[in-house]
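User: Please predict the structure of the protein below. I'd like the answer in structure-token form so I can feed it into my own downstream comparison script.

Assistant: Understood. Taking the following sequence of 329 residues as input:
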Amino acid sequence: MTQPLLEVQDLHTVFSTKEGWVKAVDGVSFELHPGETLGIVGESGCGKSVTALSIMRLQRPGLIKSGHVMFKGDDLTKATEDEMRDVRGKEIAMIFQDPMTSLNPVFRTGWQVAEPLRLHHGWNAKKSLTSAINMLGRVGIPSATERAEDYPHQFSGGMRQRVMIAMGLTTTPEVLIADEPTTALDVTIQAQILDLLRHVNQEFGTATILITHNLGVVAGMCKRIIVMYAGRIVEAGPTADVFAHPKHPYTWALLRSIPRLDAERHEPLKPIEGLPPNLVDLPGGCAFHPRCAFKIEKCSRDVPALQRVGDTQLSACWVTQAGTELKGA
């Protein structure tokens, strides 16, 4: 196994509100290896995006309370803002959820895609624009020279997402964070964007963190998966193993809620009962226990640590750590 390119160690990110401190990221730890595509999944509000923003130090007004983000031996949580500007967009790039609000409506698209080259490499306008047009063509935008003169509102949703991917790749970063890159796109365009990300991973060797709530996307893209709930990692392991034998009741419930092609025609979906917890006032013990079908008395009292369960998976669950198999997903 190669040395990790990125290591997140016991990361805690909080937000101050009138009700109290929101524990958006609560002790998250994971590794990302060169050339790997890692999936992070979970319901809205579970901490996926804040984890990514914390890696980039873009979590404001949130505060990184403790923990480390080690990138090639340097701790990004201790880096100055000038040092982070050198990292952002050059060595670690991020594709945000909504490309329409991420692109500036008053600047031409080619100028925006070329901006990282001007900032990080010091290239002049002509040289950076030529490289940006080449990258727009490589991500599948037809007539790239002409489209580089267009404004963001002149592109479709899928094309705007391609522009964001092109912008992230101009400096050939070592890590690409894709935060729900297929949100609000129709399924055909989703497939095209995912194929493009797969091609990027293979052609550039870019390590990718794919954040999504779509388990089908993760199944087709990622070798390894992290499942988050209430700001914590509740399960992690190879994607095939997690899907075949989930070791946390939350993962089990997510898998049961997906429509199946082999199910009975009129079989109703099985939603997860209840609502995600209030991150200001988490329930005692395991945060998932009020919604859990397998809970035992200990679950409401003690917080389970993330421990190895089986040969390849990690799970934060008292039930599976005691050897119980979760059947029926």
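That's the full token string. The chain has a mean pLDDT of 91.
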